[in-house]
Specification:
Two copies of one chain form a homodimer. The first copy, chain A, is of the alpha+beta class. Chain A has two domains: 161 residues, Creatinase/prolidase N-terminal domain (Creatine Amidinohydrolase, Chain A, domain 1); 292 residues, Creatine Amidinohydrolase (Alpha-Beta Complex), CATH 3.90.230. Helix content of chain A is 39%, strand content 13%. The first copy, chain A, has 17 helices and 15 strands. In chain A, strands 6-5-4-1-7 form a five-stranded mixed beta sheet, with helices on both faces. The first copy, chain A, has a three-stranded antiparallel beta sheet with strand order 8-9-10, covered by helices on one side. A three-stranded antiparallel beta sheet of chain A has the order 11-14-15. The longest helix of chain A is centred in the middle third of the chain and has 24 residues.
Chain lengths: 462, 462
């Protein structure tokens, strides 16, 4: 955990920004795995940790926006249970550690909220993403569970986005630790991917073990696949075969709750063939062009467009694209090869604050999501600021169903060489992703550099 | 998956045993981790897999107990989504693979149940352990969500217990695979525990990585602690220190959904001191005595009593206990040292069918849970049968809060040498656990033998 004052300042700022009403931040409860007592490893809500730190189930925090008073609620372990749990700090002791003035039981929370409801005070809460918290909000606030979202507070979300979007130095140190663990995960993947015949799950499992050995879980279910063109896939059942690229998209969380999110793509066996090398370098150039251009004051949407343009130029030199690449970009033809966005914010959530509502996280009053294929998948479009941490993850995919669809619709025929593209349907996909801090004038790629060029990858795999 | 006929036969038997009404077996949905789209690795409900196999979210199965007709429900992937998911089998195709006659969408399930409700048919379902399925049952069956348990079917649970309690040869092969992966997990732990200063989470993470590399998750959150006397603890934050025992209680699941559950306890650094060796051998003798006695026709409660008696005799020879050990056992004094039960059933759940209601899983018409401290924690008391798989996990713990409590109450003073016991408050705990198949005349310890004697452990750690 950070210094007590960090949490005090964050809560004070939040009260100031929200101005009026009670702010309720529910912590998470345990999630059952295959029966009530067998649970998934606990994951606290990120906003709860941001303001109230504890990575423990069944806690809630309240901040009175009018007075600035704060509260930590949860039930103490009963004396009889100490036989089984060992000595456990009380809620009062925990509240002291993070500088919270009031503390109480779950019943005290209920009473506080009931009184506030009777006084007609506004109660601000975040939209839930777990059924347990939806049910809890419904019962605490007397709102039907299917109507909870309607009443979730936009002011609260905006005030939290304002704080969590800009990372402090101590937060950046934590994210960098997470990237350093990802370095171990991905370099291990590279060494294991030398051996044709290895199963994807053997590599993915070993990588997850490295994340866990670093003290945190993976920040999302690892994507580790020789079919990188299947973008929504978590299958790990295949063996590494000659001629396939292995896409490895994986990161971890630190014990303090900060994420990394890194992608590397390597040739199964360790040597790129010419076709793989050509496409790889087109993607790498897109990644490097974006990296060069990221700085405060620039809209991330423009960085996305620069990256796909660079990719397009690379694909044109291979012969997969043709014509005016600027026109291809503006007409959306790059979506044939890269149908996803260039990146997203990263922090305590791997897609930071994704549950809040993208119009206030990745976009703002001045920017909004495009409806164009490809660009409409961009999670982050707004102007970059000093202290933001973002991902830079261009990719190139040969998706048979998508190729067939566009070809049959005669789409983008001025830009796409469908004849050559047909012969790439067995290629798979490539993605290269780093985590980047926007600095006062430019940016910095976070963490220990992970092999990224063809030469570096072939070296570590040799 | 097993042969199609396995699933057909299981469903047929279930219909026959339940006799009347519709049997609804809900599969699990995804569980959100830190926002809606970021999920925990999916874990299917074990009973769903037993009858309908698929380890995929958002499926449900129905069996008509009157006619034997069966149904698989779920929504097909839309054509547009295939761009992202790749080719995916349809519900109809999936139903064919496991020999299910009817298939349909989630809406079809709703319609089928509405019609059955209107006809006044009884709908059998299992008690939910996840909030999502509680909400789904509530909405499908028009039962208030807090009243669901009251209406969960006892007949259905009894009929499933009848089948799942007795493992087939093909199921035993799977459990044995899970134990063999646990062999790798625990021998790796032993080699890592040589090095004092190692953090518990480094070992636990590596072990979980081995489970995952074997293709399945851990069967429960790993217990890996130098404070084995804290029975309800999942903390992994400590370093291995000279003089502490490391308790490692961990197992995995196979891709087919079968569990292992193994405990080994080793001295940090690799060498037992005399005090550790003496207590260890008392626990080992309890484990071996139980192992010797397990056979069909014996109540598992009697095996538990034999194990704790053997432990008591060992502790008497150390001087920690005194007097008549038979009397100590019958008066419950062994609970001071081993306040938990000797074991439980194991299968597709690590505590097999724990969510059903213990009175029909671990006990039956003839046996019920004791209320005596220690024995009341025994999950399995009933008569053993050929084909059951159970755990054998005696332990001995020195729990300061428990020692203080009993001492201050003057309890068991004829049996416990509290003066010597005071000096063991820094000892920690020891547990030794194997997975055992009850055979037609005796039993078989499953899997590759994992070092268990003092000599074997010191050898692998040297």
């Amino acid at each position: 955990m950070f210094n007590k004052n960090t949490y005090i300042e964050r809560r004070k700022q939040l009260a100031k920004d929200v101005k009026d009403g009670l702010i309720l931040i529910l912590g998470n409860t345990d999630s059952a795995f295959n029966y009530t007592a067998n649970i998934y490893t606990f994951r606290q809500d990120s906003s709860f940790r941001y303001f109230f730190e504890y990575n423990l189930a069944d806690l809630s925090g309240v901040i009175d926006a009018n007075t600035g008073e704060d509260y930590l609620f949860g039930d103490d372990v009963e004396i009889d249970d100490i036989i089984w749990t060992g000595e456990v700090a009380s809620i009062r002791e925990r509240a002291d550690v993070i500088g919270v003035k009031h503390s109480g039981s779950k019943q005290d929370l209920k009473n506080l909220l009931e009184a506030a409801i009777l006084q007609g005070r506004h109660i601000h809460f975040l939209p839930p993403y777990r059924a347990e918290n939806r049910n809890t909000l419904s019962s605490l606030l007397h709102i039907k569970k299917d109507h909870i979202e309607k009443f979730a507070s936009l002011e609260l979300r905006k005030a939290i986005v304002k704080q969590r979007s800009i990372k402090s130095l101590e937060e950046i140190v934590e994210i960098e630790k997470a990237v350093d663990t990802a370095y171990e995960m991905h370099t291990t993947m590279m060494r294991m991917a030398r051996n044709l015949g290895t199963y994807e799950y053997q590599i993915a499992g070993t990588m997850e073990g490295i994340a866990l050995s670093g003290g945190g879980p993976v920040s999302f279910p690892i994507i580790l696949t020789t079919h990188g063109e299947i973008l929504h896939g978590h299958d790990h059942s295949l063996q590494l075969r000659e001629g396939r690229m292995l896409v490895s998209d994986a990161g971890c969380e630190t014990p303090s709750g900060y994420c990394s999110d890194i992608t590397r793509t390597v040739p199964c066996g360790g040597k790129f063939n010419q076709r793989q090398k050509d496409v790889y370098e087109a993607v790498l150039n897109a990644n490097l062009a974006a990296q060069e251009a990221i700085r405060p004051g620039v809209e991330y949407k423009q960085i996305h467009l620069l990256a796909v343009k660079t990719l397009g130029e690379g694909l044109k030199s291979i012969g997969l694209m043709k014509g005016d690449i600027d026109a291809a970009v503006s007409e959306g033809a790059m979506g044939v090869f890269m149908p996803h966005g260039l990146g997203h914010m990263l922090g305590m959530d791997v897609h930071d604050m994704e549950n809040f509502d993208e119009s206030i996280v990745g976009y703002d009053e001045k920017t909004s999501r495009s409806t164009q294929f490809g660009l409409k998948s961009l999670r982050l479009g707004r102007t970059l600021e000093d202290g933001m941490v973002i991902t830079n993850e261009p990719g190139c995919y040969f998706i048979p169903a998508l190729i067939d669809k566009f070809k049959s619709e005669n789409k983008f025929k001025d830009f796409v060489n469908y004849d050559l593209l047909e012969t790439y349907k067995d290629f798979g996909g490539i993605r290269i992703e780093d985590d980047i801090l926007v600095t006062d004038k430019s940016n910095r790629v976070l963490g220990k550099p992970i092999p990224k060029t063809v030469k570096e990858i072939e070296e570590i795999m040799s």
